[in-house]
Amino acid sequence: MPTLTWVGKDKVVNHHHDVPFKVLRHESHFDAPEGSPVNSTGNRIIHGDNLEALKSLLPEFEGKVNCIYIDPPYNTGNEGWAYNDAVNDPKIKKWLGQVVGKEGEDLSRHDKWLCMMYPRLKLLHRLLAKDGVIFISIDDNEHATLKLLMDEIFGLRNFIDNVIWQKKQSPQNDSTYFSDMHDYIMVYAKQAKTSKLDTNGFELIKLQRTQVQDDRYTNADNDERGVWTSSDYTCNKNADERPNLYYPIINPNTNEEILPKRTSVWRYSKDRHLENIENNLIYWGSDGKGRPRFKRFVEAVSGVVPSTLWLRDFAGDNQEARKEFRKIFHETEADFSTPKPSTLIERVLQIATNKDSLILDSFAGSGTTAHAVLKLNAQDGGNRRFILIEMEDYADTITAERVRRVISGYGEGTKKVAGLGGSFDYYTIGEAIFNPDDTLNEAVGIEVIRHYVAYSEGIPNADQTPQDNTYTPYLMGLNSDTAWLFYYEPNEVTCLDLDFLNTLKFGVAKPGTAIIYADKCLLTKEFMTQYSIIFKKIPRDITRF
Ligand SMILES: C[S@@+](CC[C@H](N)C(=O)[O-])C[C@H]1O[C@@H](n2cnc3c(N)ncnc32)[C@H](O)[C@@H]1O
């Protein structure tokens, strides 16, 4: 498989491992006003660089995100907008300087963009559920490089498709060459199905049929099974490829013998054709004297397979997005030059999420993804949740503020838009869980430390125990095979010895193996082997005690 190289790649391919785990600091909670419609709770908006934020989400959300939509800077070379599109944001420049080093100063625009995207896509891949899917908005500035990057990180076989989204209504006549009318949305599954019958991996949901589509169904022969439309009785195989499908069919009304063309034979075998006659599934034209067509009943058609061409009447366009933004923020309040229309993201959610999905947008901008999630929930009674991440200072004043207004309602008089309900929590990025010398940063608190250790031990969620469990406050997890204990006291050195073991009373729940974290261990190797005890030293400096 061809792979892409660029200046600085060697510095970033493993960088996601080096990004410190940091605590997400809870800043505020926002709830819909009383009497608002019910909508999802447990939503999050995080202000910070998405690299750190994504890493911090791993302990809680690795493998749990169902759908990711991102709209990263397209790297068009335009700067000085409400956000910086050219990866020349001081924060990203500083980050590149730290990660790529001196070499970083000479990187081209494209090298920088790739360095920025690679570790973030790596983390997004880890956050995605087995049957999850990622949609990435992009244009021709980085489309080709992104495709190779995604092939490398997600795997070529997990490429689903490239959607073409019509972003404008009218062509620009002053373009030097073509008038650019579309963006792409690149779609990759964490695991794509190997065939239609494969029950694993990402499942695309068909779109609901529209009235226009339903109107194509009639009932020319008053069939009691309801309305139907007719489709071709032939297929695109020739008589040499499918000799069994090249046979004469008799029109029962005229007794005429009808042959298909040798270049497009019947779609159905002789036996299946006889069944079709038996089941009144053939239409012979309005006068009954025509060639056969297949009767397709509306009930049998479960929905519409989405196409890769999304026109503006289907998914909105940039102009609609700006109008939508302006309805929420008066021009004296805030500006954002590149919002996406919420209709576009609703389409993504309709085909890729169910009512309980978790949706992540780590380049949140004006918060359109949250808007789309809340809108769709309001329409179908769903409980989809979102996590948004935005680096710039407008994370609060635009990203979160838009969501507050969408939840509570906005506008005045005849332009008033009712609130959709729901709530969210707002976070910033706090302290690292580890100090630079790899010892625990105890200042983050026991809850965070226990949660991190449970994650690094891979304790299944269902087996994790709170501190106020019935056995011991040091228990972190328990199942029939293993007990995990974190014997930690902030102000004293803890010692794994017989006295400590005597305090543990598991009774019948006694597991086979005990993994015990403590500062010291006084048990002998033989004893630990005999009772299947594994000691792990808590990484902290205990010389101060
Ligand atoms: C094209 S805009 C997204 C627009 C969004 N889809 C909407 O509808 O409003 C890209 C956003 O990603 C943000 N961004 C860029 N780099 C980031 C990073 N490293 N971490 C978090 N946000 C970032 C930018 O500040 C900008 O707001």
Describe the structure in your own words:
It is a single chain. This protein is of the alpha/beta class and about 550 residues long. A hairpin with a 6-residue loop joins strand 15 and strand 16. Helix 5 runs parallel beside helix 6, helix 11 packs across helix 12 and helix 12 runs parallel beside helix 13. The site of S-adenosylmethionine (SAM) has 16 residues, from strand 14.
Short précis:
This protein is an alpha/beta fold and 545 residues long. It has helices at 9-12, 15-18, 50-61, 90-100, 109-127, 143-154, 211-214, 270-278, 312-315, 318-328, 342-352, 368-380, 394-408, 446-457, 498-503, 525-530, and strands at 22-31, 43-47, 65-70, 128-138, 159-166, 182-189, 228-231, 249-250, 257-258, 282-283, 293-297, 309-310, 358-361, 385-390, 409-410, 417-418, 423-432, 475-478, 482-486, 495-496, 513-518, 520-521, 533-537.
Which labels suit this protein?
16 helices; alpha/beta; binds S-adenosylmethionine; single chain; 545 residues; 10-stranded mixed sheet
Mind sketching the topology for me?
Elements: H1 9-12, H2 15-18, E1 22-31, E2 43-47, H3 50-61, E3 65-70, H4 90-100, H5 109-127, E4 128-138, H6 143-154, E5 159-166, E6 182-189, H7 211-214, E7 228-231, E8 249-250, E9 257-258, H8 270-278, E10 282-283, E11 293-297, E12 309-310, H9 312-315, H10 318-328, H11 342-352, E13 358-361, H12 368-380, E14 385-390, H13 394-408, E15 409-410, E16 417-418, E17 423-432, H14 446-457, E18 475-478, E19 482-486, E20 495-496, H15 498-503, E21 513-518, E22 520-521, H16 525-530, E23 533-537
Parallel strand pairs: 2-14, 2-17, 3-4, 3-13, 5-12, 13-14, 19-21, 20-22, 21-23
Antiparallel strand pairs: 1-17, 4-6, 5-6, 7-11, 8-9, 10-11, 15-16, 18-19
Helix pairs in contact: 3-5, 5-6, 11-12, 12-13
Bound molecules: S-adenosylmethionine.
S-adenosylmethionine binds near residues 339, 366, 368, 390 and 392.
